[in-house]
Specification:
Layout: H1 3-21, E1 25-30, E2 33-38, H2 39-58, H3 67-76, H4 85-91
Antiparallel strand pairs: 1-2
Helix pairs in contact: 1-2
Amino acid sequence: MSFKTIVAIVITVLLTVVIMQNNNEVPFTILFTTTYISKLVVLSGVAVVAFILGVIVGRPKKAKYDIEAYHDNVLNKDKPDTLSDEDRDYIN
Protein backbone atom coordinates (compact mmCIF):
# COMPACT_ATOMS: atom_id res chain seq x y z
CA MET A 1 0.00 0.00 0.00
CA SER A 2 1.16 3.51 -0.74
CA PHE A 3 1.71 6.18 1.88
CA LYS A 4 -1.32 8.14 0.62
CA THR A 5 -3.58 5.13 1.06
CA ILE A 6 -2.42 4.52 4.62
CA VAL A 7 -2.90 8.19 5.55
CA ALA A 8 -6.39 8.19 3.99
CA ILE A 9 -7.37 5.07 5.96
CA VAL A 10 -6.04 6.51 9.26
CA ILE A 11 -7.88 9.82 8.72
CA THR A 12 -11.09 7.99 7.84
CA VAL A 13 -10.91 5.81 10.95
CA LEU A 14 -10.19 8.81 13.22
CA LEU A 15 -13.02 10.81 11.63
CA THR A 16 -15.43 7.91 12.12
CA VAL A 17 -14.48 7.56 15.79
CA VAL A 18 -14.91 11.30 16.45
CA ILE A 19 -18.26 11.40 14.66
CA MET A 20 -19.61 8.36 16.51
CA GLN A 21 -18.61 9.75 19.90
CA ASN A 22 -20.57 12.96 19.24
CA ASN A 23 -24.07 11.70 18.48
CA ASN A 24 -26.17 13.66 21.01
CA GLU A 25 -28.48 16.50 19.96
CA VAL A 26 -27.49 20.09 20.60
CA PRO A 27 -29.17 23.40 19.73
CA PHE A 28 -27.86 25.16 16.62
CA THR A 29 -28.84 28.70 15.73
CA ILE A 30 -29.09 29.17 11.99
CA LEU A 31 -30.27 32.61 10.80
CA PHE A 32 -32.54 33.55 13.71
CA THR A 33 -33.86 29.99 14.09
CA THR A 34 -32.80 27.57 16.79
CA THR A 35 -33.04 23.91 15.86
CA TYR A 36 -31.91 20.74 17.59
CA ILE A 37 -29.60 18.76 15.34
CA SER A 38 -27.40 15.81 16.11
CA LYS A 39 -23.70 16.62 16.19
CA LEU A 40 -23.23 13.47 14.12
CA VAL A 41 -25.18 15.04 11.25
CA VAL A 42 -23.33 18.35 11.47
CA LEU A 43 -19.88 16.78 11.66
CA SER A 44 -20.68 14.41 8.79
CA GLY A 45 -21.98 17.28 6.67
CA VAL A 46 -18.88 19.37 7.34
CA ALA A 47 -16.62 16.41 6.51
CA VAL A 48 -18.42 15.78 3.21
CA VAL A 49 -18.30 19.47 2.22
CA ALA A 50 -14.61 19.67 3.15
CA PHE A 51 -13.86 16.56 1.08
CA ILE A 52 -15.69 17.95 -1.96
CA LEU A 53 -13.90 21.30 -1.67
CA GLY A 54 -10.56 19.51 -1.31
CA VAL A 55 -11.18 17.49 -4.46
CA ILE A 56 -12.21 20.59 -6.41
CA VAL A 57 -9.23 22.65 -5.26
CA GLY A 58 -6.70 19.83 -5.54
CA ARG A 59 -7.46 18.54 -9.02
CA PRO A 60 -4.88 19.26 -11.71
CA LYS A 61 -5.43 22.08 -14.13
CA LYS A 62 -6.43 21.28 -17.67
CA ALA A 63 -3.58 21.47 -20.14
CA LYS A 64 -3.88 24.04 -22.88
CA TYR A 65 -3.07 22.61 -26.26
CA ASP A 66 -1.47 24.59 -29.05
CA ILE A 67 -2.99 23.02 -32.15
CA GLU A 68 -0.76 24.90 -34.58
CA ALA A 69 2.46 23.83 -32.84
CA TYR A 70 1.25 20.22 -32.74
CA HIS A 71 0.39 20.34 -36.42
CA ASP A 72 3.80 21.84 -37.27
CA ASN A 73 5.59 19.15 -35.25
CA VAL A 74 3.69 16.38 -37.01
CA LEU A 75 4.47 17.77 -40.45
CA ASN A 76 8.15 18.51 -39.70
CA LYS A 77 8.92 15.00 -38.44
CA ASP A 78 8.81 13.59 -41.94
CA LYS A 79 11.20 16.19 -43.41
CA PRO A 80 14.83 15.07 -43.60
CA ASP A 81 16.18 18.62 -43.11
CA THR A 82 14.86 19.24 -39.62
CA LEU A 83 18.26 19.99 -38.09
CA SER A 84 18.56 22.87 -35.70
CA ASP A 85 20.92 25.75 -36.40
CA GLU A 86 23.26 24.45 -33.71
CA ASP A 87 23.41 21.03 -35.39
CA ARG A 88 24.09 22.63 -38.78
CA ASP A 89 26.95 24.66 -37.30
CA TYR A 90 28.43 21.53 -35.72
CA ILE A 91 28.29 19.57 -38.97
CA ASN A 92 29.86 22.39 -41.01
